[in-house]
Write a structure and sequence with these properties.
This protein is α/β, with parallel strands linked by helices and 468 residues long. It contains 12 helices and 19 strands. It binds dihydropyrimidine-2,4(1H,3H)-dione (DUC) and zinc ion (2 copies). The site of dihydropyrimidine-2,4(1H,3H)-dione has 9 residues, from loops. This is Dihydropyrimidinase.
Length: 468
């Protein structure tokens, strides 16, 4: 099958050009000013932007967490991602305590295999890294799993100590892996949580007040210091605050290869959301939490200055009410105790439109920077480039035809994520993924899904090659 995309404006991170694209099978084979080769499908992209498919390197599909399971599985979550213009995700597999690292990855691949509707890869959350497991890291790098997440928060659930972090960092340098860090000081946060609950403070807003930005900054600084000592790069996930950004900025200004992502929720929502009436604040309970509004401008500045390189979602939905699509009780587990509210929110479908509307249309970032943040930089940092994250001859034909003028209203009613609320409900955004191609096949066309569950491929990622 062949596809010809005509008259569009191709926007890559490094350049923007009006040209036609010829796709033979799954690959872009030609880009030229005017292509007239006959094709099975011809798409007229006049007035549209033609961008590489979105790459979301931070999702949690069917994650067992907080006494329940995130509500999107690999089918519903990746269909929703496709609707939003994302054609590749990198999800987080979890190692059980005592388990060899490849076992966790294989469990996630089995979950994904028959369901995943877009291409995917996996990081592994490492909970337990004794010496006997160290060789496992190389084995996984050879299989294309080239990044590992460690937690400095959630004691007793995910948290690892500094010695473990340091050993994993050193090992990552030898093996060509990248360590992704959840940077919050879990020990101090636990103390603050106990004190708040002891004082009878149980409402959702206390989730934010017991996870202060100072404790995100402390952990971010510590993670960077440990990575410097180990002589390896580090990638800070879901950075939410000006305080933590300062640590990354300072390290980068010294030439340290510290990288960081932020997420739309930290750019568009704020601590005020926790004060919505009743139990509504639970919708925004995630970690790190939403911050006071003034942090938003600092994060935008970080994106402009390249102190933040990636915008991902940390998509981890839980329903507000029991029974939505047959799902069990989730957010309401914490009706009387904010610390029992499952942490996470939906976002995989809305990332590109929020960042286009709130970033490009407001003049905060250029179209090219937008593409870089949502596709090219994540592809490069996570070893997917130039197969993904770029429209070029030889790259996968993962392409979004973006209508820059179409206005939509974000609503749980029209979205596809398996969750009974949307954190941006009622927000009007301009810019819409009109057609989405996954390896040359149109999987979404004007809001209709034409892809297939199970047709997404596991993508082996390249070993990390950045040297300090
Ligand atoms: N933060 C969340 O909000 N959910 C999943 C895990 C995490 O780190
Ligand atoms: Zn995290
Ligand atoms: Zn996460």
């Amino acid at each position: 099958m062949s596809v010809l995309i005509k008259n569009g404006k191709i926007v890559n991170a490094e350049s923007s050009v009006e040209a036609d694209i010829f796709i033979d099978g799954e690959t872009v084979t030609k880009i030229a000013p005017a292509i007239d080769t006959p094709a099975d499908t011809v798409i007229d992209a006049k007035g549209k932007l033609v961008i590489p498919g979105g790459i979301d390197v931070h999702t949690h599909m069917e994650l067992p967490f907080g006494g329940t399971m995130s509500s999107d599985d690999f089918a519903t979550g990746t269909v929703a991602a496709a609707h939003g213009g994302t054609t590749t995700i990198v999800d987080f597999a979890v190692q059980e305590y005592g388990e060899a690292l490849p076992v966790g990855v294989n469990r996630w691949r089995e979950k994904a295999e028959s369901k995943v509707a877009i291409d995917y890869s996996l990081h592994l959350i490492v909970r337990d890294f004794p010496q006997v497991r160290e060789a496992d890291m190389k084995e996984l790098v050879n299989e294309g799993v080239t990044s590992f997440k460690l937690f400095m928060a959630y004691p007793g659930v995910f948290m690892v100590d500094d010695a473990t972090i340091f050993r994993a960092l050193r090992r990552s340098g030898d093996d060509g892996a990248l360590i992704c860090m959840h940077a919050e000081n879990g020990g101090v946060i636990d103390e603050l949580v106990k004190k708040a609950l002891g004082d009878g403070l149980t409402a959702p807003v206390y989730h934010a007040l017991t996870r202060p930005p100072e404790m995100e900054a402390e952990a971010t600084g510590r993670a960077i210091a440990l990575s410097e000592m180990a002589g390896v790069p580090i990638y800070i996930v879901h950075l939410s605050s000006s305080h933590a950004l300062e640590k990354v900025r300072e390290a980068r200004s010294r030439g340290v290869p510290a990288y960081a992502e932020t997420c739309p929720q930290y750019l568009f929502l704020s601590e005020d959301n926790y004060r919505e009436p009743g139990f509504n604040g639970a919708k925004y309970v995630m970690s790190p939490p939403l911050r006071p509004k003034w942090h938003q401008d600092k994060l935008w500045k970080g994106l402009q200055d390249d102190d933040l390189q990636v915008v991902s979602t940390d998509h981890c939905p839980f329903c507000m009410k029991e029974g939505h699509k047959g799902l069990p009780i989730q957010k309401e587990l914490g009706l009387d105790d904010f610390s029992a509210i499952p942490n996470g929110a939906p976002g995989v479908e809305t990332r590109l439109m929020l960042l286009y509307d709130g970033g490009v249309r407001t003049g905060r970032i250029s179209e090219q920077r937008w593409v870089q943040l949502v596709s090219t930089a994540p592809a490069k940092l996570m070893g997917l480039f130039p197969k993904k994250g770029l429209i070029a001859e030889g790259s996968d034909a993962d392409i979004v035809i973006w209508d820059p003028n179409r206005e939509t209203e974000i609503s749980v009613k029209s979205m596809h994520m398996r969750c009974d609320y949307n954190p941006y409900e009622g927000r009007k955004v301009t810019g819409f993924p009109e057609k989405v191609l996954l390896r040359g096949k149109v999987v979404v066309d004007d809001g209709a899904f034409h892809g297939k569950e199970g047709s997404g491929e596991f993508v082996k990622r390249r070993a990390h090659s950045i040297k300090v």
